[in-house]
Amino acid sequence: MQEAHVSAVPVPSSRADGNQVLTRRALRTKGVRLLDGGRQGDEVVACGLVGAVRMDCGVYANFGRRMQISDLEMEVALKEEVSIKIFLEGHVEASIDGEPIPMPRRTAQGRWQPSAIVVSHPQGARLRRKARKGQYLDKMVIGLPRDWLRRWQGFADTPQGFKALIEGRPGLWRWQPSARAEFLIRQMFDIAARKPPFATMQLESNTLAIIAEALSDTFGSGADAVASSGNLTATEQQRLYALVKCIDRRPGCELCVTDIVGELATSPATLQRLVRKAHNCSLAEFIRNKYLDDARQALMFSDRSISDIAFAAGYTHLSNFTAAFRRRFGHPPSQLRRPGSLTGHSTEAGV
User: Fold this and answer.
1) Domain check: are 153 and 246 in the same one?
2) Per-residue pLDDT tens for 278-335?
3) DSSP 8-state code for residue 110
4) Comparing C-alpha atoms, which of 298, 295, 274 is closest to residue 286?
5) CATH number, domain containing residue 81
6) 99 contacts: CB under 8 Å, gap ≥ 6
7) pLDDT tens for residues 70-113?
8) 176 and 66 housed in the same domain
9) HEC string for 201-240
10) Does the residue 317 lie in any domain?
11) Structural domain ending residue among the three candidates 209, 225, 241
12) Disulfide: which of 19, 138, 152, 297 matches 89 by Cβ 3.0-4.6 Å?
């Protein structure tokens, strides 16, 4: 098979200090509708370090930090596409067709907790954004052409949720970026600013690694891992997100549903209905699948033993963990530790 060629070029700064400015006039030339009634001239509304990746296969990524210089409320019609939107730090108000986009939150220790979504929207979907002077946002937006995604459609293990994404069905799926993904994005900020040797290669590599994690985490478990935002209210989405974070804070060997119910100040019946509505499975299945997904990531990206990972996932007997893992992913956990096992369908996905 002929090797695919890709290229990527960081967006050069428009100023020597590395700050790229954004004016109201520039927004209008891009088809943006300004809603705040502000001056329509060359007023600078934002500035920041901005980088970009462009690949011949159609995949692109825009990333960086943008600081708001003045208040701005805008709306723009989106083209039909699949995108991954990652927000590391900061806050603005944003929505797609009225669906709020989750923003980062601060933990009790003061650290920013990133947020991200995988979104599929039709032609003409409306993105609305409202930002106030002094607000900022560290973010990355990755665009994924459906023709590129269809390269994986023919495999027998293609999850149903991923097929729905390829087919163009609208939906919004939450994804929680790992510390590794956050590091890769921050590294791209630095690469775009310094432009070291092999910058293009590093930007491409990081972008593809982030895509792989986002799609694997979101759709790697099959259709039951998918929850279209249209099925949930904003309150239900927040409660589901709180449930996931509550599970994340406890290893499987220490998890007790009673503790979760108490921490979330809700009832087991309410959580059961929420999980059934969002993921079409029971609360117990949701928790078990979450720990198995985490175990899969640990097997791929850590050197911990399989028995330690199994225990953290709530399994005291390795045989039970192996059986559950095989049912979920179609192969035993040991397969991820064999040489070459992580390359998967590399001849098909080598871009």
Assistant:
1) no
2) 777 889 888 998 889 888 878 876 778 999 999 989 999 999 999 999 988 888 998 8
3) S
4) 274
5) 2.60.120.10
6) 172, 229, 230
7) 888 889 888 888 999 999 999 889 988 888 899 998 877 788 88
8) yes
9) HHHHHHHHHHHHHHHHHHHCCCHHHCCCHHHCCHHHHHHH
10) yes
11) 225
12) 138
